[in-house]
Amino acid sequence: MQRIRFSRPEMLFSLKSFAGAMLALYLASSAGLPRPFWAFMTAYIVAHPLAGNVRSKALYRFMGTLLGCAATVVLIPSLSAAPELLTLALALWTGLCLYLSLLDRSARSYVFLLAGYSAALIGFPLVEAPATMFDTAVARVQEIGLGILCASLVHSLVLPASLAPSLLALIDRALGDARRWMSDLLGDGLARADGARMAADRQRLALDITQLRLLSTHVPFDTGNLRWTAGAIRAMQDRLSALTPTLSAIEDRLEALKVAEGEVPRDIVSAFGRHMGWTAPQGANLSAAAIDETRAAFRALADGPASSPWIRALRIDLSVRLEELVREWQACIGLRTDIDAGLAGSAMPRQRAAALGQKVLHRDRGLALRSAATAVLATCACCAVWIATAWPSGSAAAMSAAVLCSFFATMDDPVPAMHKFVVALLWSLPVSVFCVLVVMPLARDFGMLALCIAPFFLLVGCYIARPASSLAALGMFFGVAGTLALQDTANADLPSLLNSNLALILGAVAAARITALVRSVGSDWSARRIRRATSLDLAELAANPQDAFARDAYAGRMLDRIALLAPRTALGAGEEARADARLALRDLRMGADIASLQQWRRCLPAEAVGRLLADSARVFRAQAAGAPRRDEPLLPQIDRLLLGALHGDAAQPDGTAIAAIAALVGLRRNLFPAAQGALQP
């Protein structure tokens, strides 16, 4: 039989979580609070291996609890005479808060999540006893507040684990993925580059950037110097987001030159070979003169030999992208140096540009609304059974349904996870009965109680810290701790205990069944909605003038979508998954090119460029609506604008319309990748 082994971090997390929970339980019992195990359970809920995460979750949980209690205090006195309306109002409040929580994908979403199911946890038991509403709400806030305070103190003061190692490793991994992509691309000039390897680098980079945006929410709460680097970390996210479409565009233009000329022109390959030092890890130490020399060499590629206007346009575009790549990469390296300086205690340079932060994350309002409706339906179904049968423990079923629908709402198909959670609740039932009916009556003092419950909670805490077993362990924990929190342990008997646990399990089963009928969606359905949202964004970019901020915001949002698509497309067929990834990357480049064209449209004929953008917006709206994409008229419009720009002042390398030429080339390549040869006059 294989021995169970836990790592040191897992055991430390379990010990600290139990210590914080027991401290909260002791203080709540000493203060005479009616349900001290609420404080115990809360201390575990906000626990996390990283101290910064604990402190941010603590703040957001307390704010959410206050908001949920306030809703309870408002709703119960107003609707106490009509239990049906009161339960409906509580269910609708839960759904509304869940909807808002799903739209805010940062750690702040915890406020709305807690506001929703805190009102359910407090309000449903009071439907039949509204007279005790205010006292119960105040007691619950005190108990939860104690749990939050104790967990924050223990995790912050006892061997606190800083967010810095995890965050810096994530930043370095993202920079490493970008560096590998550049080395594969520029070092080989696409002659020997491994396309599959570069595709994997792109997906990893997109996932790293999204994880960095989500993880950095906790930076201001960190216990070390990392919190002083928050501005540089946010700027780093934005620079990495801007770097990705530039790299992707260079890869595409090199491929276009290779197809048009039979190979990548030798002067371009030679320039890459002579100026690759800036991509190496030691390239951060290059002098400003060496960087300027590299940029000048890349700028000169625009004047290289060109056998046709299209080849010349490709060269101009490539030189613009390469210069931009060098500039963006140096900005990333400089920000990484600033972060190290901030960790060492040095003053941080002020970030002048407004960081995009969480504003760029993808939001699916339709799926959020569907999740909220599922929570309302499941809760109302349990309430209907409760009211129709006058079930004494029916409120527990409504609470269980509301909480489970909220917990698993971020998944495409939450049903398998819900079933696993229900199985864990069933396994926790005998432990709950033993704790309430045997341990609690025999525990003469607090020390004996701690000794009696320590083995179970210390073991469960180790499994919670292990990702592979955390879901089942949380089910066991909530089954036991929830029973202790909801029961009057001094007067509990076996029938009432079994009745309330049966209600919790039936509520969870009802939530899983209604979720399967209403909410569960396939990964292909979610992928289609992500692509539809991208088409609408492209239409908005084309229809309205945009600035550089909008361009970077679109790049960040598309990288987030690529990260969301990665696990979903991995479930499909291999070629179909690769096609989805290529389409997402093309849309990322296309948005950047449209935003750039909007920015530099003054360098082109106003009427022609206005017509092109308006027609492009119509094409993208039709694509979002599922209609066939009729974009054939766009190709001659793009070609005429390109020819006019190439034969005018914009053809000079230092002309102000160089960026407009690059944007037009990008638009042509993204909309019509198969179009080669002469431009249409």
Secondary-structure topology with pairs:
Layout: H1 8-30, H2 37-45, H3 51-79, H4 83-103, H5 109-123, H6 133-157, H7 164-188, H8 195-215, H9 230-261, H10 266-274, H11 288-300, H12 309-343, H13 365-389, H14 394-407, H15 415-442, H16 446-464, H17 470-486, H18 494-519, H19 523-543, H20 548-569, H21 574-599, H22 606-624, H23 634-646, H24 658-671
Give short descriptive properties of this protein.
681 residues, mainly alpha, 24 helices, 74% helix, 0% strand
Describe the model.
Helices cover 74% and strands 0% of the residues. By secondary structure, it is mainly α. Helix 3 (51-79) packs across helix 5 (109-123).
Average pLDDT value?
82
| Major sheet details | none
Q: Which H/E pattern describes the elements?
A: HHHHHHHHHHHHHHHHHHHHHHHH
What gap, in angstroms, lies between the N and C termini? 78 Å
The quaternary organization reads as single chain
Please bin the fraction of helical residues: over 70%
Give me the Rg, rounded. Answer: 29 Å
| Content of β-strand | under 5%
Number of helical elements? 24
Low-pLDDT stretches are 570-574, 649-655
